[in-house]
């Protein structure tokens, strides 16, 4: 099993072009690739489309401002957000009202399945969630269908140019184990992007993660960034 290339957070950010669609895993900053996000903030790149459960937190667990992906929002690096909840990052709403940020909200389970469908090569997902609500009007909703007398929404599959994963333990082959809620959206996102970079807190030798504990397979990972604090 070949080793993956280990690169710095700055080198990882250099691989991401302006205008890229980026999937960022985790939940309210937990399980996000913080070091890579910080390098993107410091770069001159922008116009990103972000896909994630949420857009981080205005204040982090240690009192730090703009925790996780919220920093990209604050420094106006983002043109579009596809998420399920943005209430912990108020600037998303502010920039949306200003007309400088497009925000598309979808139910959490629907978003997870739309990402999974993108990775599986499916065209979309049929779900009853959102029928009769504003979700029907979303640009991510293809149409409403009736099957056996019940209405469903056909939600479009989602893919990205880049997925940034925040792992707890990763071996040299790129196999990832997530701690607790770090797992979140990281797992389906790994299969739905052209370029996958995992930022890991611990880098270990092949064999130190038991096969049954692997949550993201190394075959899906392109690069590893060591030393991130993703929890």
* Reported CATH architecture of the largest domain: 3-Layer(aba) Sandwich
Q: Describe the largest sheet.
A: 9 strands, mixed
Give the SSE order as H and E letters. Answer: EHEHEEEHEHEHEEEEEHEE
Approximately what portion of the residues adopt beta-strand conformation?
25-35%
Total strand segments:
14
Mean pLDDT: 94
Task: Assign the CATH topology of the largest domain.
Answer: Glutaconate Coenzyme A-transferase
The low-confidence runs, each spanning 5 or more residues with pLDDT under 50, are none
Judged by helices, strands and strand pairing, the structural class is: alpha/beta
Rg over C-alpha atoms, rounded to the nearest angstrom? 17 Å
CATH superfamily of the largest domain: Glutaconate Coenzyme A-transferase
Number of domains: 2
Distance between the termini: 28 Å
CATH class of the largest domain: Alpha Beta
């Amino acid at each position: 099993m070949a080793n993956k290339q280990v690169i710095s957070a700055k080198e990882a950010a250099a691989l991401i072009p302006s205008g890229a669609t980026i999937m960022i895993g985790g939940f309210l900053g937990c399980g996000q690739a913080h070091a890579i996000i910080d390098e993107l903030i410091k770069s001159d790149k922008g116009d990103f489309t972000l896909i994630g459960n949420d857009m981080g937190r205005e204040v982090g667990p240690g009192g730090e401002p703009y925790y996780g992906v919220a920093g990209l929002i604050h420094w106006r690096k983002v043109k579009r957000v596809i998420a399920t909840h943005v209430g912990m990052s108020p600037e998303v709403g502010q920039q949306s009202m200003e007309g400088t940020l497009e925000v598309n909200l979808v139910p959490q389970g629907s978003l997870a399945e739309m990402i999974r469908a993108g990775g599986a090569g499916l065209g979309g997902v049929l779900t009853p969630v959102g029928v009769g609500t504003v979700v029907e009007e979303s640009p991510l909703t293809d149409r409403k269908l009736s099957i056996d007398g019940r209405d469903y929404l056909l939600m479009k599959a989602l893919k990205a140019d880049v997925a940034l994963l925040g792992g707890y333990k990763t071996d040299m082959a790129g196999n990832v184990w997530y701690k607790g809620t770090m797992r979140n959206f990281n797992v389906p996102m790994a299969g739905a992007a052209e370029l996958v970079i995992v930022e890991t807190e611990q880098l270990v030798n092949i064999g130190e993660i038991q096969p049954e504990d692997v949550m993201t397979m190394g075959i899906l990972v392109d690069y590893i960034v060591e030393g991130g604090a993703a929890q």
